[in-house]
Write a structure and sequence with these properties.
Elements (H helix, E strand, L loop, with lengths): L13 H14 L7 H15 L6 H20 L3 H20 L6 H17 L3 H19 L4 H22 L2 H17 L1 H5 L4 H21 L3 H18 L5 H20 L3 H14 L1 H13 L5 H12 L5 H5 L19 H19 L3 H20 L3 H5 L1 H21 L3 H22 L3 H21 L2 H13 L3
Protein name: Tetratricopeptide (TPR) repeat protein
InterPro entries: TPR-like_helical_dom_sf (IPR011990)
Organism: Kribbella italica
C-alpha cells in the first residue's frame, strides 16, 4: 500500500493521475491491470529527481511504487520481475533511511512480506517462510512501540500473509495461531479499518485469514471454531463481492464452498449442500479448487511429525526437548518459527531435529521433510540473528546444516517438487560458501561443500539457467584442487 510517510503528496498532473488510476485498480481487485500506470509513475518520478541526490520526495515515490508494482506483477504471474521491483524498493527505502529522512522500518517489513508472498507464488516455500518470519517480527516490534495504533492494521495484514505461507510450507499449528491472531485484530480494529482508504484490501486479507483458520481448525476436528471463522469469512466476502471484481467474486465462492464442506462435517448436510450448490453454480472452477485443497488436507505439524518419528524410529532422547518447541519461547507468541526458541538454542534444537531426518527418509519421507524444514528454519533464524554459536562454532553447526539441506533438497527433487528443491539447493550453496575456510584442513567438509555446489548446479541446469549452473560447478571443482 503506497504510503507517503509524510514526505510527499500526489501532484495534480500526469504523474498524479497515473498514481491514482493504479491505486483505484488495486482497490477494485484488478492489480494485474495496474502495472503500466505504475511503470509510468516510476518513469516520471525518475525524471523529476534527475541528478538531484536530495530529491527525497521523488525517491520515496519511486520506492513506494516499485513495491506496488511488484504486487501487480505477481497478479500477472511475473514473479521474477516482481522480485526485481522489490529489490529496487528495498534499495530506495534503505537510502531514505540512511539519509535520516524516513524511518523505513515498516516499509522494509512490507517489502519483506511481499517478497515472501512472491517466493511462495513461485514455489520457493522455504525462503518464503523465513522472509515472512522477519516481517512479522518487525511489525510485532512496531506495535509494541509508541506508534502502536497506526501499525496495528498492517500487523494484522502481515499475520494473515504469514498464515497463508505457513499453511502450505510450515507448521499448521503456527499457521492457525497466526490466522486467528489476524482475525481477532481485524475485528478489534473494524472501526479504524472501515474509515481507511485501504479498507477493501484489509477485508481481502481478513478473508484469507479466516480461510486458513477454518481449514486447520476443521482438520483438527475443532469444527465449532472452523464454522465461526467460516461465518466471518463469508460475511466479509459477501460485502466484498459488491465491488463487482472477479477476484472478489471468487473469494465469495471459495468461502461458500469451504463453509459447505464444514457444515457437512458437522452433519448439517442440507445447509452444506446448499452452500456447495451455490458455489459451484457461480464459479465451478473456483469452487472445485477449494474442494481439492480441502481433500489434500494439511501438512503434518511439528508435534505430529515428532510423534510419528518416535513410532517409526523408536524412542529418542531429545523427544521432549523438541516437543517443547510447540510452546512459545518466553516473551513470544507462537505464530512464527522464530517464536519457538531463542537464537542461541535454535541451532542446538535444529541439530537435534536434523539427526532424525536421514534415518526417517527411508521410512516416511513426508515426516522426514517436515522435520527437515523445521530444522532448516531454526538454523537460518539462528544464523540471521547472529547467535554466538553460529558465529563462533561455524565448523560444528554449518556442516550439519549443509548436509540437512542437501538431503531434503534431493528428497524434494525425487518427489517432483523441483521449485522447493531448487530453493533449498540455493540455501545449501550459501552454507557451503560459509564452509570454505574449513575445507583446506578437512576433506569431508570439502567433499560436502562440493556436493552442495554440484547439486545446486545440476538443478540450475535442469531449470535452464546454464550460466549460474556453470559457476556452481566451477566452485565445486575448485574445492578439489
Amino acid at each position: 500500500m503506497v504510503d507517503s510517510g509524510g514526505l510527499w503528496t500526489p501532484p495534480e498532473d500526469e504523474l498524479g493521475e497515473a498514481l491514482q488510476t493504479a491505486q483505484v485498480l488495486i482497490e477494485e481487485g484488478r492489480a494485474d491491470e495496474a502495472g503500466p500506470y505504475q511503470q509510468r509513475v516510476i518513469e516520471l518520478a525518475r525524471e523529476r529527481a534527475g541528478d538531484r541526490p536530495d530529491h527525497y520526495e521523488a525517491k520515496h515515490l519511486m520506492a513506494a511504487t516499485q513495491y506496488e508494482l511488484a504486487g501487480s506483477l505477481n497478479a500477472s504471474g511475473r514473479h521474477e520481475e516482481a522480485l526485481a521491483a522489490l529489490h529496487e524498493a528495498q534499495l530506495g527505502y534503505t537510502e531514505l533511511s540512511d539519509s535520516g529522512v524516513l524511518d523505513a522500518t515498516s516499509f522494509l517489513a512490507d517489502v519483506r512480506a511481499r517478497r515472501a508472498m512472491t517466493q511462495a507464488h513461485r514455489g520457493w516455500g522455504a525462503t518464503a517462510v523465513l522472509e515472512m518470519d522477519g516481517a512479522v517480527i518487525a511489525y510485532g516490534q512496531l506495535v509494541g512501540g509508541p506508534d502502536s495504533l497506526h501499525h496495528q492494521p498492517d500487523f494484522a495484514r502481515v499475520l494473515a500473509m504469514n498464515a497463508l505461507i505457513l499453511r502450505r510450507y510450515g507448521d499448521p499449528d503456527l499457521a492457525v495461531a497466526s490466522a486467528d491472531a489476524a482475525v481477532q485484530l481485524f475485528l478489534q480494529l473494524a472501526g479504524q479499518i472501515n474509515e481507511s482508504a485501504q479498507s477493501l484490501s484489509y477485508a481481502r486479507y481478513l478473508c484469507s485469514a479466516t480461510a486458513v483458520s477454518a481449514d486447520i481448525h476443521a482438520a483438527e476436528s475443532r469444527l465449532d471454531l472452523a464454522l465461526e471463522a467460516d461465518e466471518i469469512g463469508l460475511s466479509t466476502a459477501d460485502t466484498l463481492a459488491d465491488s463487482e471484481s472477479a477476484t472478489d467474486l471468487r473469494t465469495l465462492v471459495a468461502a461458500l464452498a469451504r463453509k459447505g464442506r464444514h457444515l457437512n462435517q458437522v452433519g448439517r448436510v442440507l445447509e452444506g449442500e446448499n452452500c456447495l450448490r451455490t458455489a459451484f453454480a457461480t464459479d465451478e472452477e473456483a469452487a472445485q479448487r477449494v474442494v481439492d485443497e480441502l481433500d489434500r488436507g494439511i501438512p503434518p505439524s511439528l508435534r505430529s511429525a515428532l510423534e510419528t518419528a518416535e513410532i517409526k524410529l523408536g524412542p529418542f532422547e531429545q523427544y521432549y526437548r523438541l516437543l517443547a518447541l510447540g510452546e512459545p519461547a518466553p516473551g513470544m507468541t507462537l505464530a512464527t518459527v522464530s517464536g519457538r526458541t531463542d537464537p542461541e538454542s535454535a541451532c542446538v534444537r535444529a541439530t537435534e531435529l536434523a539427526e532424525l531426518v536421514r534415518p526417517l527418509l527411508a521410512h516416511d519421507a513426508e515426516t522426514a521433510l517436515t522435520l527437515g524444514l523445521e530444522a532448516h528454519y531454526l538454523f537460518a533464524i539462528s544464523s540471521e540473528r547472529e547467535s554466538q554459536r553460529m558465529r563462533y562454532e561455524t565448523s560444528t553447526y554449518a556442516p550439519i546444516w549443509a548436509r540437512l539441506l542437501l538431503d531434503i533438497s534431493e528428497a524434494y527433487h525425487a518427489a517432483g517438487q523441483t521449485e522447493m528443491a531448487l530453493d533449498l539447493a540455493g540455501w545449501s550453496a550459501e552454507v557451503a560458501t560459509a564452509l570454505i575456510p574449513f575445507t583446506t584442513s578437512n576433506n569431508e567438509v570439502a567433499d560436502l561443500a562440493g556436493s552442495c555446489y554440484r547439486h545446486h548446479g545440476d538443478l540450475l541446469a535442469a531449470k535452464g539457467d546454464f550460466l549460474a549452473s556453470q559457476h556452481a560447478h566451477e566452485a565445486a571443482a575448485q574445492l578439489q584442487t
